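REQUEST FORM: STRUCTURE PREDICTION
Request ID: SP-0412
Submitted by: Lab K.M.
Chain count: 1
Length (residues): 201
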Amino acid sequence: MFEDNAGLEAKTVLGPGDEPISAAGIEAMLSAECSMTVRYVPVGGSARLRPVVQCRRRCFNERGPQIRTALTENLKELHVPAMRKCFEQAAHQAEKETLSYEQYLLQLTERECESRRQNRIAALLRESGLPREKTMPNFDVNRLPVKAGRQLKALADGSFLDRKENLLLFGNPGAGKSHLLGALAHELIAQGRRMNNVPCG
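STATUS: Completed
RESULT:
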C-alpha cells in the first residue's frame, strides 16, 4: 500500500496540521472502508514527510459524481462562480502535483479573487463612460515634452487623488488633452479606482 517508503522508520510523518501521525493513525488510514494508496512527500526539503492519500480509481468512480454535485451546489450557494468553474480541473492538477490541501485551496481562492477583480474593473469601466479607444497604449507619449512625460508617470499611481488634488491640462486644440486624460483614467480604473467621464458643455 505504500509507495517510496524506504527508511520510513527514521522519519516523522506529518498530518495536515503538521502534527506527527502515530503508527496507529497510519494503520487507521490504511484500513479505511475505501481502498487507498498513501504516498509520502518531503516537507520543505527536510527529512520529514507528509502523507498524501489517494483513492483507488474504483472508489473515485463510485463516489466522485456525488461529491462533485454536492460541492458544486455548495459553491453556488456561497456565490463563488470562479471556484465552481475550476475546482475540478484544479483538483486533478493538485493530485498530479501532490499539492497540499492548503496549496489547493490557495489556488482556488486566488482564481476567485482575480475573477472578482476583473469583474469589478469591467463594471467600473462601464460606469465611467470613458471612450474605450482612448487608452495609454493608443497614445503616443513621445509627443509629450520630457517634463510632461515624467509628470504622467507620477500621476499614474493615483496618489494625487488620495491627496484630493486637482489636475488641469493646457494645450492647443488637437494636442491630445482629452485622449491623455482618458488614458490616465483607464490606468486608474485598472487599479480599482472609480472614474466618471463628464463631457464639457
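NOTES: Strands lie at 2-3, 36-42, 49-55.
Reviewed by: T.R.
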